[in-house]
Write a structure and sequence with these properties.
By secondary structure, the protein is of the alpha+beta class. 30% of the residues lie in helices and 21% in strands. The protein has one domain: HIT-like (HIT family, subunit A), CATH 3.30.428. The protein contains two helices and five strands; from the N terminus they run E-E-E-H-E-E-H.
């Protein structure tokens, strides 16, 4: 069920929603994932997400939302076309998206330094 469309972006309800109103926002032009999507098109995708999300929240009476972008099989990507999940959240829905890990300040500094050196 389509909820939004413009010249470059299309949005529709997920067929296996985590909650009522779970919507996928995709570029019409094919790119396998977010990292292969041209920057200008990725910006238009996020602008569409900003436009669509308040309408979704109002329609379902949601108290918040999560955005999801799965890139690569190890991240759970099964459809290899760039897409953003808008998942409305409710205080009683009990969906856990991830469990955080305890890390020392030394471990955090080490990975931060590696990321900065890769930029």
């Amino acid at each position: 069920h389509k909820v939004y469309e413009d010249d470059e972006v299309f949005a529709f309800l997920d067929i296996h929603p985590v909650n009522l109103g779970h919507t996928l926002v995709i570029p019409k032009e094919h790119h396998k994932d977010l990292l292969s999507t041209p920057t200008e098109l990725a910006q238009k995708l996020i602008i569409a997400v900003q436009k669509i999300t308040p309408a979704i929240l109002g329609a379902v009476g949601s108290e918040g939302f999560n955005l999801g972008v799965n890139n690569g099989e190890s991240a759970g990507q099964v459809v290899f076309h760039t897409h953003v999940h808008i998942m409305p959240r409710f205080s009683q829905d009990r969906h856990a998206l991830w469990n955080g890990k305890e890390m020392s300040q030394d471990e955090l500094k080490e990975v931060a330094d590696k990321i900065k050196s890769n930029l």
